[in-house]
Specification:
Elements (H helix, E strand, L loop, with lengths): L15 E12 L11 E14 L7 H4 L3 E7 L7 H10 L19 E12 L6 E12 L21
Antiparallel strand pairs: 1-2, 1-4, 2-3, 4-5
Length: 160
Amino acid sequence: MVTFEVTPATMTLPAGTYLFSLKSVEPDTEPSKYSDKPRNKWTFVVEDVIDLDDDTDVDTEDLVGREIFQWKNQSMAPNSTQYAWLCGMLGKKSIEKGEKVDSNSLVGKTYRVIWGDKPYQIQSTGESGVSTTIIKITPNKTAKPKATRPAVEPDEDEDF
C-alpha cells in the first residue's frame, strides 16, 4: 500500500497579499512542455501573510517559510511577465531600452506580492486555463516613523 500526504511545499497559496523575499533567479535547465523558449526559475520565500482574500481555514503560520517557484520566459519585451515583475520590484513604471538589471541586486530583498488566479492562453497550443501566480509585485516600503518635535517644557515662572 502507498500512502500519499500533501506537504506544504506542494500546496498552493490562498489568494491574498504577502511579503515574499526573492531567494534566487536562475536559468531553467528543464524543458518546458509549453515552449522551446528559454525560461528563468524564480524562487521566492513567504516571509509574512498580510491579508487573505477569502475566509479560509489555513493557518497563516503554516504559509510562512514556504518556497514558491515560478517559471517565466526570459523575454524582456514590455508586455512580458518578467518585465512587469522587474518594473514592480524596482518600483519603476518602465525599464529603459539597454538598461541592465542584475538579479543579484534583487535577491534577499522583500517584496509586497498580490497572489491569485490569472487566466492564461498558450499561443503554441491554444491551451487556456487559470493559474495561481503573482498578480502584482512591488517593493516592500516600510513606513518611516514621523518626525516628532521634542516636548516643550513650560517655564516654571510663566502663568497659564
